[in-house]
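Retry 2 of 3 after timeout on previous attempt. Resubmitting structure tokens to design endpoint.
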């Protein structure tokens, strides 16, 4: 049984709590003993709404951790509060599973990484898209060698959500709030790391966001591979999936993936002709996952702790996805190509 305190009881906490309640292994193995929010009424409301009636609720995280001495902290606060929440949790001997982004800046992420190493604590970050059947099947396909050596990944992300609230007021909204998911998915799929980026960011005419609703980014990767990202959060009509729409090109063939279940492609099957003959790419079977999305991340986190291994989106891996985001922002602001390799050391 893992004893957990949840901090940050806003919108996203509902997704976590539903995942925990509805996933047998999580409902069985996690005891939510405390709920904390700057607004103590919200903490109490959230605990009651999901049936955690005997949990303690309040607004002071340090006092709650002092009183309850939990094993882990589930951190779902806004990015600006992440550093102090994680520091407080580490100071009380807790491992932490944080919502994305890992930190509000790369400097803060480096600080948290150093502190985790110093205190011997596990810190993992929610990258829920790593825990979906489609991406696991794509990863298996790439690792099978069917496409040969991967030379390019292309991701399109075009949606027109009207969130209201903070997203419509913030700077770099697409890159900061959403693109981290697609960038992390690219790193998960590609057996190479991004080394540099050139990014152009715009806020197109008609955008209902105040800044940066669209971006085009070109990443260079180790081994000569490239990753291109075209994204917009103010594209009305013809939506892609939230997981983006992908084209993966290898030395033997190409595959299209809609971000959901549809994967189709072809590989070269002969050496003659203007266009060489092709055959349909052989796709691996879909492997069913015990838990998906947020439930998958939480299950991986508690299982990894029990097994003494690193979770899938552990801090020293996730900081590399965060570095892609901040390098893309720096490139957009300066108009220069920005090196990433030094930023993650
Ligand atoms: N993984 C995903 O798909 C996904 C989706 C949406 C949001 N998120 C992330 O989840 C996090 C929370 O987003 P949200 O939509 O729930 O925001 P929200 O504003 O609805 O909720 C955040 C809550 O944190 C509380 N809070 C802030 N600072 C605090 C502190 N120091 N101590 C205690 N409580 C504090 C606020 O009072 C608020 O209730 C963000 O980092 C966001 O990027 C992730």
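Retry 2 succeeded. Sequence:
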């Amino acid at each position: 049984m893992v004893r957990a305190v949840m901090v940050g009881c806003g919108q996203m906490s509902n997704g976590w709590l539903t995942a925990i309640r509805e996933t047998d292994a999580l409902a069985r193995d996690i005891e939510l003993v405390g709920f904390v929010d700057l607004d103590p009424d919200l903490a109490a409301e959230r605990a009651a709404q999901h049936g955690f009636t005997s949990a303690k609720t309040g607004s002071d995280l340090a006092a709650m951790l002092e009183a309850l001495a939990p094993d882990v902290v589930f951190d779902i606060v806004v990015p600006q509060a992440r550093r102090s929440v994680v520091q407080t949790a580490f100071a009380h001997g807790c491992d932490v599973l944080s919502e994305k982004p890992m930190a509000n800046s790369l400097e803060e992420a480096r600080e948290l990484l150093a502190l985790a190493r110093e205190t011997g604590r596990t810190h993992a970050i929610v990258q829920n898209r790593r825990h979906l059947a489609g991406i696991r099947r794509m990863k298996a396909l790439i690792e099978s060698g069917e496409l040969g050596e991967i030379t390019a990944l292309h991701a399109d992300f075009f949606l027109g959500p009207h969130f209201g609230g903070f997203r419509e007021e913030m700077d770099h909204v697409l890159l900061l709030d959403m693109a981290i998911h697609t960038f992390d998915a690219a790193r998960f799929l590609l057996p190479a790391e991004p080394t540099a980026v050139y990014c152009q960011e715009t806020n197109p005419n008609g955008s209902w966001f105040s800044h940066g609703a669209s971006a085009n980014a070109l990443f260079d990767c180790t081994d000569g591979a490239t990753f291109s990202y075209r994204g917009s959060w103010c594209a009305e009509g013809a939506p892609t999936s939230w997981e983006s729409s992908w084209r993966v090109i290898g030395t033997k063939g190409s595959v299209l993936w809609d971000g959901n279940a549809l994967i189709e492609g072809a590989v070269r099957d002969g050496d003659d002709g203007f266009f060489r003959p092709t055959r349909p790419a052989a796709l691996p079977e879909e492997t069913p996952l015990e838990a998906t999305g947020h439930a998958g991340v939480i299950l991986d986190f508690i299982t990894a702790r029990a097994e003494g291994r690193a979770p899938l989106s552990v801090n020293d891996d996730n900081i590399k996805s965060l570095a892609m985001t901040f390098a893309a922002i720096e490139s957009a602001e300066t108009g220069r190509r920005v090196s990433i390799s030094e930023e993650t050391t």
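Attempt log closed. The mean pLDDT is 96.
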